[in-house]
Amino acid sequence: MSTKVVDRTPLTFYERSYLPAILSGLKVTARHFLRSAKGHNTATDLSQGYYPEVPWTVAEGYRGAPYLVRDQEGHTKCVSCQLCEFICPPKAIKITPPGPEGIPSDRANAEKMPREFEINMLRCIFCGMCQEVCPEEAIFLQKDYSLTGTSREEMIYNKEKLLSLGGTHAGIQKWKHKLESAQHQEVFPVKTH
Amino acid sequence: MSNPATTTPAPAPAVPPPVEKIRIKVDGREIDVPKMMPNWQGKLEPTTMLQACHMAGQEVPHYCYHPKLPVAGNCRMCLVEFGTPMIGPDRKPVLNEDGSPKIARSVLPYEPQTPRGAIACATPISPGMELYPNSPATKQMREAVLESLLINHPLDCPICDQAGECKLQEYSVQHGQSASRFVEEKVHKPKAVDLGPRIVLDDERCVLCTRCIRFTKDIAGDDALGIINRGSYNTISAFPGRAFDNNYTLNTVDLCPVGALTSKDFRFKMRVWFLKETKSLCTSCGTGCNITIGSREGVIHRYEPRENNAVNGPWMCDAGRLNYKWVGRKDRLTEVQSRGQRTTWATAIKEISERLASATPGSTAIIASARQTTEELYLLKRLATRLGAVTDSVPRAGNADRLLVCDDRNPNSQGARLTGITFTELGIQLAWIADGIRNGSIRHLVVFGEDVTQQGIGADLLGKLETLIASDILPNATTARAAFVLPGCAAAEKRGTFINVKGRVQRFEKAAEAPGDARPEWEVLHELVEKVTGSTGFTTIEGLFNQMAKDVPALAGLEWGKLGDTGVTVAI
Amino acid sequence: MDFIRYLDPTVQFMLFSAVKIVLVFAVAMTGVAYAVLVERKVSAWIQDRVGPNRAAPFFVHYLPVVGPFLTKLGIFQPMADGLKFILKEDFTPSYVRKIYFWIAPAISCVPALMTLAVIPFGSTLGNANNPMVIADLNVGILYTFGIVSLGVYGIVLAGYASNSKYPFLGGIRSSAQMISYEIAMGMSVVSVFLVVGDLNLSKVVAYQSGGIHEWLIFKQPLAFFIFLVSAFAETNRLPFDLPESETELVGGYHTEYSSMKFALFFLGEYAAMIGASAMMVTLFLGGWTPIWGGAPASSLLVGLSHIVWFLAKLGFFMVLFIWVRWMLPRFRYDQLMNLGWRRFIPLALVNIIITAGLIALTHK
After folding, report:
1. Does B158 sit within 8 Å of A83, measured CB to CB?
2. Residue of chain A whose Cα is closest to the Cα of B162
């Protein structure tokens, strides 16, 4: 219907002998070869050296390893909603929810935080789905790209490690504001933890 | 009041009585619906618009309506635009030019341009009526109602246990708006209120549908809940000085369409979308409530009732619902043992079958448990027939209540009776077996799933036996003295059937893997029976059930595939 | 060294042959190792990369200027590569046919090295009785073709023994490709021998010893061209590397191999390249003769210079092999067969007929 068949221009005998392709190939490769042989190289031209000696400048918006962050008051932001665990394509995240007996949360009004939060960095593909899905702005892909360990167990980062690596991210503190708003209304007495 | 557990599940009459039908139109499509339909108590009442839409394949969103509860009509979510045939001054229908009856759309009395909806859950249909469940006006009404319900909602889905099975979430996706227009400060209400021993209430999430109030008053018969305060400050509350504590409180958690009432037991345990749902049965009493097991990676997280109007309706008791934690206990039997040494199934089964096969006929006794599946009891009976063994099982009695709980606390007493493991009464042979051991006529005892030291066969008697073979799930005094210990499976870890006190044959599926060496008893028994009797059998539970149905007269004609999810009633 | 002269001639021959074999083998092995380095370095430079520039034994750090320069060129990389191959886990998958799986790498490697036996890599080292060729066979070229044909068995066997789909496809492709191009290759050299009138490779070199204008590349350009392209196909090099074709067959016949067994395939491929290059040098580029021509050497120094000439020409072809790999894309399978059967074989036949005709006309 809407497909239009366009005939290929038939090749000339000279073209069919492969010779023009070979010659132009030779030209291109020779140009690059000579340029490199003279010592020019994109990497060295840009940063005067190679990776391990000259550390790489991490670009803005780079997606490295995901870590958990704390809010400006030092509280765990994660509320263990497990959306990241659900979305994670390689199933690298494993969250142990607090359960009925667990510690509720280290800040007032949030009710919940993970008992354990593990990311298997061997599985993680740094796709950023966890960051995108997080309703609490508690997990961010940060700039670490070179993660090493001497065993598989070592590459499974637990909550403590993720929090210490993640640092602080100042957010809107919605649970705190909800609590303040509730206290302000005084219609129902607010329970304090 | 309808009581699904106590009404006799009568077989469907061969010829249904003629049903009076009304012709209406739903979304322009003509459909005949019965004029009367059963209400929540089973009594016939005029068919509602919601039921008619359902029959036409159009689901009307609703919060307060529940088919098994009295209609309240207070959430307004089910508003539907409709029209009725116009009647002229001469009391005759007004006709269009093409001869079809002219329809008057419902409008506001003094504002004929504005459509006026009716709550579909409580408005009966009339002949010639037209329903518009997908009209722009209906959609607008739904959006407005939903927006109004969400005004004071805290939007704390990340910490809400209902997230994933929440009607507010579902309807917000279907009928909601992407942004809130509410600029004032939300009204805050009490959070994490301790309503009763098993229930937590979050008043901010509540949409005041009153399902919980109606359930506990009209179904559970414990008028414990009510609404206090006025307007925006409406809150659900237990009556002052009373805890919300009866044996059916957790049903309100299922009923609650939002996350207001949540289970303390399931609180913050696992997000519901991770749970694998397995159709199973409650094993706590003879009623055999249908349940759905929610498990993740082999760990059982909750039981929920599964609707079966012939057995439990949509309800189940709290005791049965919470009776799952022993399945994951750390001290479960996980090793096959032969005289205290760990061994393999193959070795153990070989040794046991040799012992039993060489035993003098009549010198063996088998004590089975009415907590085992019918198939397992059937295999034990076949073993007993071959060995000339005396068999019995152990009764377990409790107090019945008026809704679901049964005085027989064994889930499969009827299975034990029908397969011939016991006679009319469970446990009447136990004393005879004890005497047999005492005087030496019984030398071998096979115990499945019971602790016989609690049943008059004490440690001294067990010591006199030549062979004691015990299979159980958890260790007890009998397994401690057994020569052969065979670790078994909980019902949630195997497949099979139970027959409830009313003769309902129901099957259940496997939700989790058994720990360690533990295997479903029917597999073990099947090998044992094959070795002892020499007759080959089946390797699947389906084949075993069908074989049993051929051999056991009461189950004649049944097939595993025909049981369905809700079971079949047999004469007992 | 005088005692050698007093030895029995047979013993002398055996002694010299043994020394030559060891030397040729050593040079060929080193050649393979450094061919890999050249391959990596050339490819890197063509693709604007850096290539190996790090591996260095610890003492190199103490050398001023030279040390860092050699390191940057990757001179020590082949040692590291070799060490790595030896130290890697030699993994044999459970599903392979073990005996064939184990002998396939050897079968693919040995024939490649054996072709070098008949190549005259120099004239003499002053003693006319001791030519610089391991086996001066009268049927040298037939021997070569016979041995080269064996190389395909290693690959087919590897493909069959791996018991896995990609190696299997690679093995099948390889057998079809190598059999096809052997015909074209064999036919292309027929005209060369028509001109020379002898199958002994030393005689072929002697025929061309008059200088660059005597080289058969100018007398038989078509034969050279067909032989060159067929050599690419026979060694499974791009643009004819269909048996390996990383993009579609993972690694072709050596997908399931690791460690030293994989290294043997690698070694076989580069040894085959050296063998094919040596053949082309001998047949078309005058062998060990300098461009101005020359008789067999009468002194040690001239003899050594002849070997250098041979190695230089060999090096030219090696670089050509490598360069082409990074220049041309892979042929499609039907194109490959088309080229072999419908272009080269008829062309080679025509070439034979014309050459024979010309010889018949000019020959008295």
Report:
1. yes
2. A81
Cα angle B394-B397-B403, degrees, rounded to a multiple of 5 = 135
Contacts of C124 (CB under 8 A, 6+ apart): C130, C131, C132, C296, C297, C298, C303
Q: Domain of residue A20: give its range.
A: 14-47
The CATH class given to the B21-149 domain equals alpha beta
CB atoms within 10 A of CB B72: 19
**Can you tell me the distance from the alpha carbon of C122 to that of C310, in angstroms, rounded to the nearest whole number?**
7
What is the chain B residue with the closest CA to A86?
B274
Residues B96-101: what's their mean pLDDT?
87
Q: Do chains C and A touch (3 or more CB pairs under 8 A)?
A: yes
Flag whether pLDDT at A95 surpasses 90. yes
Same domain? For A42 and A73 the reply is: no
Which chain B residue's Cα is nearest to A104? B268
- Tell me if B501 sits within 8 A of B414, measured CB to CB: yes
Q: Which chains touch C (3 or more CB pairs under 8 A)?
A: A
Considering only residues B211 and C93, tell me which one the structure prediction assigns the higher pLDDT: B211
CB contact, 8 Å: B239 with chain A?
no
Report residue C27: phi and psi, to 5°: -65, -40
Residue B492: closest CA among B284, B343, B230: B284
Which among A33, A42, A44 has the least Cβ separation from residue C45? A33
Tell me the two tokens of residue B173: 């996706």
pLDDT for position B99: 84
Residue C342: CB atoms within 10 Å: 10
Q: Kindly report the pTM of this predicted structure.
A: 0.73
As for how many domains chain A has, the answer is: 2
**B59-86 pLDDT, tens per residue?**
999 999 999 999 999 999 999 999 999 9
Assign 3-class secondary structure to B420-449: CCCCCCCCCCHHHHHHHHHHCCCCEEEEEC
Residues of chain C with confidence (pLDDT) below 70: 1-2, 4, 126-129, 243, 364
Residue B9's pLDDT is 46
Please, which residues 121-140 of chain C have a Cβ atom closer than 8 Å to chain A?
none
Nearest to B461 by CA among B430, B435, B483: B435
CB-nearest to A100 from B268, B273, B274 is B268
Residues 314-343 of C with CB under 8 A from A: 323, 326-328
Instruction: Find chain C residues with C-beta within 8 A of A22's C-beta.
Output: 327-328
Per-residue pLDDT of B356-383, as tens digits, reads 988 888 899 999 999 999 999 999 999 9
CA angle B21, B26, B27 (to 5 degrees): 165
Q: Which CATH class is domain B337-569?
A: alpha beta
Closest CA to B393 of B251, C245, B376, C294: B376
Contact A22 C48 (CB under 8 A): no
Assigned CATH class of B157-166+183-328: alpha beta
Mean pLDDT, range B426-437, rounded to an integer: 90
Contacts of B398 (CB under 8 A, 6+ apart): B285, B405, B407, B408, B409
Helix or strand run (H / E) with residue B22: strand B21-26
Domain co-membership, A40 together with A101: no
Of B158, B191, B264, the CB nearest to A135: B158
Beta strand B235-238 with B261-263 is: unpaired
Which residues does chain A have within 8 Å of residue C73's beta carbon, measured at their own beta carbons? none
CA distance B107 to B184: 32
Query: Which residue, A94, A88, A158, A98, is CA-closest to A130?
Result: A88
* A29/C46 Cβ within 8 A: yes
With a CB-CB cutoff of 8 Å, which residues 25-44 of chain C face chain A?
42, 44
Pairing of the two strands B130-132 and A66-68: unpaired
Q: Which residues of A touch C45 (CB under 8 A)?
A: 32-33, 36-37
Q: Per-domain residue ranges for chain B?
A: 21-149, 157-166+183-328, 337-569
